[in-house]
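Team,

Forwarding the record for the chain on the shared tracking sheet. I've put the sequence and predicted structure together so nobody has to dig through attachments.
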Amino acid sequence: MRIGDLDFGSKPLFLAPMEDVTDVSFRILCKEQGAAMVYTEFVPSDGLIRDADKAIAKMRTLPEEAPVGIQIYGHLLESMVEAAKMADNAAEIAGGHGADIIDINFGCPVSKIAGRGAGSGMMREPDKMVAITKAVVEAVKKPVTVKTRLGWDENSKIIPELAERLQDVGIQALTIHGRTRQQMYKGAADWTLIGEVKNNPRIHIPIIGNGDITDGPKAAEAFAKYGVDAIMIGRASFGHPWIFKEIRHYLDTGEELPPLAVAERVALAKRHFDLSLQHKGVPRGIYEMRRHLSCYFKGLPEFKQTRMRLVTSNDPEEIRDTLDYIAQHWADSPLQTTNVYDI
């Protein structure tokens, strides 16, 4: 599978962009665990053109996570074009590696984004969506991709026609989440429409499927049954970054890896924690790791007090000591991965 000059090989696995989750430390970790491409958190176009420090900081990527996509969102054509130009030059503006791909977020369903007409709110204005995409494609040098949903609601699943229109204005890949905006993350993802888009003889760009892929067998079925070129994994990676290694192993061998032992999870949590401190410092690196640390050890018995220590301490050494305690105290505990739906 290729996007522009980037060759991802056969059946690649991508890390979905997730607000407050896919920061640089998590992206690097998922890359180390086998993600073929990772994406930044959502970068607001209006924040970029106002030179907001937080928005610009989200565009900073590093060579060790490449290839990486910078995802932008907004509902105004002019600001989206200016934001795309900034993402195109992210290495100069924000430092670091920059963008290999510019991705447009037409999929986020949360009210503060979709309610303003951005994200999946664009599904109600397909003409505007296509116009913004065309303008962005014409404004930048990097490959432009789009992530979107099936439609606004059950009665407006416009993705088959929309996919053709987006392709025709120049995008180089399309990611489809198999739910409508109204579904949010509820109910089962509908992969039949994703497959319909992929198998449309007019479609020649890569189609990336997204939704409910939580293990190797589900990924293998999606590739075989619907013919997608790649799979994007979101919430199923949260507290479970090794999911990319597990699925890659299954796709390559047909065998499932055993559940990761507690000591191995502790080692990954430490690696993640060290990356967070390295790139964000104290106390921010601690605060922003709490949501991750509480998820690494879901399913451990009698874990409530220890979890509280993990997510309330402000001392890096105390957190590391707590992680060591987890490795020792629960060394022999069976721990299955908690299945969650992906974004």
